[in-house]
Amino acid sequence: MSAELFSEERSAEVVAAAFAGTPDPRLRQVMTSLVRHLHDFVKDVELTEAEWEAAIGFLTETGQTCTPTRQEFILLSDVLGVSMLVETVNHRTGGTATESTVLGPFHMVASPPRELGDDIALDGKGIPCLVSGQVTGPDGEPLAGATVDVWQTNEDGFYDVQQPDVQPAGNLRGIFTTDAEGRFWFRSVVPRYYPIPDDGPVGRLLAATGRHPYRPAHLHFIAAAEGHRPVTTHVFVADSPYLDSDAVFGVKDSLVREVPEVDDPQRAAQVGLANPFRTLTFDLSLLRS
Amino acid sequence: MSAELFSEERSAEVVAAAFAGTPDPRLRQVMTSLVRHLHDFVKDVELTEAEWEAAIGFLTETGQTCTPTRQEFILLSDVLGVSMLVETVNHRTGGTATESTVLGPFHMVASPPRELGDDIALDGKGIPCLVSGQVTGPDGEPLAGATVDVWQTNEDGFYDVQQPDVQPAGNLRGIFTTDAEGRFWFRSVVPRYYPIPDDGPVGRLLAATGRHPYRPAHLHFIAAAEGHRPVTTHVFVADSPYLDSDAVFGVKDSLVREVPEVDDPQRAAQVGLANPFRTLTFDLSLLRS
Lengths: 289, 289
Known about the structure:
Chains A, B: One of its GO terms (molecular function) is ferric iron binding. Chain A is α/β, with parallel strands linked by helices. The first copy, chain A, folds into two domains: 8-80, no CATH class; 98-285, Sandwich (Protocatechuate 3,4-Dioxygenase, subunit A). Chain A contains seven helices and twelve strands. At the A-B interface, helix 1, helix 2, helix 3, helix 4 and helix 5 of A face helix 1, helix 2, helix 3, helix 4 and helix 5 of B.
């Protein structure tokens, strides 16, 4: 026998050696690193056979909970902070542009194009809110014709795609195009905090570890402009519960905004909202691509 | 906001803090370690979003390939050396007893009880082989009445449970009880090397990484005796292909045995086998429980 046989001491090296012939160098690198960290984990906790069996059962059930409209493995990645880490590693801004956060599982359909000023709250529920901002390049130059794709929950904490029989199609989502000064504005409602789906294996993991399934109230954005790197992010509502314990770790300080109340019937009439209403201002700065 | 928010630098600490309230201390320890090693892996390779998506798809398909008779996640654990590592960590012998190896996925049914000397090769195929050995305690004392549960592939490289319509039920498996001197012996055939199921996602992973799916020829054993720790192990055939590249890393030097040919018609008649035949001797030493 020429190759080294398995031993507890050298387990990661022996298994990594089996991947040494991987034709694609990047796949070889990823598998080698995965093996090393996975074996480190097993040795670190001295995983028991009963725990290993429980892990096999958990992973199997997680796979079998997935359907065309539910992705339980993404949820698992989310609650372990892996989705957020991958997002962050791949979108370092160096502090000079709007920070990114997770896309989340509810950007499942193309949002309808809207006109500036449109009301995206088609179900007539919730606290009226005027959302506005400016999209700029790295030196503050306005980006005219940028697209701003937004989506959020309704007053009950659900996205339209979660309630196809309850909410009007396209409720609380839309794609806006910035004006000559890079500005956008539209009418909506204040988004609401909500639980991630917690009736599957990931929900049971949260329960077993004393964690709640909630995300703080937020509005999703994808801003894109020619010649610039798009950003996928949220703006979070400053007075929302769960801001410091987001189940998927999406909150960054730079993404939190106050949503002050405006009590001014004239201004309300001007923007087409009931009085009083809230305002949410979120400017986005993009890096050049 | 009181709790620390997510950052690339402190991602593992921030996520681990979310598990700090886990009521069960062992689960808290396991999840904290898992988070740390998983985040180390993502940072180590700077996993791209496309790779993360591929991983989510792979894990989902692995879960959805599982059926009541196929466990693709165990197969994944096997080819990453995790099954073997868990087995080894939980059955350290200190070099004073028979080493263990993986149970494998084919011990799915209770093996039929057999009499010493029985022939377990019910399908009449293969190279006849007399298997014998002695079960002893740590000081070499014979263990009378110990049970020896054995199972192996037939000449075509399949277990009976894989071919319920082809092989007789209980083919090449059985439970023997040692005699007053702790000895066991039975008639069988030389086992054959075989591929693990490779038509699913794990098979595609092996193909993409230039690995073959084969296991070297072996005979499974579970030996158990009152007052002693049972051992789950294999004996490997010394001249088998793949001894130095077992797809599941199960081979240990101490478990490999020659299977010499005996060409002696008188001895063949005595043991009830066709001449010539092979002999395989495997003694098992158990630790006290």
